Amino acid sequence: MSADPNAAAVLVRASRDGDRSAFGSLYALYGRMVHAIAIARVGPNDADDIVQDVFLTAMKQLHSLRDESAFGGWLATIARNRANGHHRVAVDLEELPPELAHHATQEEEREARAVLATIRELPEAYRETLMMRLVEGMTGPEIAERTGLQPGSVRVNLHRGMELLREALQRGPA
To answer: Domain boundaries in the chain?
Structure first.
């Protein structure tokens, strides 16, 4: 499903008129972007909670969006604000039962956490685009469509971000 601004604008208008399936389509289009923004700021353990909170907020505040075609950027701003404020709110969490949890080896889990931590220390522009690409599997054009960035900017951010990530990983822990 494409996330071109005109298609998003149609879905936003339908959502404002009470069409829940249209809002579900917006979630399908932009959920990975929001998830990547959350992971870039709070890490994987809290990202799903942030995504849910962002879309609930967006649904309640959709009437305040002036330009329907700017939905992606507006939603990204909500996601950044929610993620930045997440640690100010205490939340009770429960662990998944062992039979439902993914069983990565300790080494795989340690490496994945180290890479995510390294990405979270990069400048924001690189951090978000890398999370969208590496964690969410989004293509460069998908990232551009959903964030409103120019495709060339996305390419530059991904290229420079990967260079910085490689350098940081080669240096090892500080």
So the answer is: 5-94+103-171
User: What whole-number distance in Å separates Cα of residue 44 and Cα of residue 37?
Assistant: 11
| Reported pTM | 0.69
Give Cβ neighbours of residue 23 (< 8 Å, ≥ 6 apart).
11, 15, 59, 62
Both tokens of 141, joined, read: 């054009």
Q: Cα–Cα distance between 87 and 122 in angstroms, integer?
A: 19
Nearest in space to 71 (alpha carbons), one of 49, 46, 54, 48: 54
Q: Give tens-digit pLDDT for 28-86.
A: 999 999 999 999 888 788 899 999 999 999 999 999 999 998 899 999 999 999 988 87
Supply 7's token pair. 């298609």
Task: Indicate the CATH number for domain 5-94+103-171.
Answer: 1.10.1740.10
Euclidean distance between CA atoms 150 and 152, whole angstroms: 5
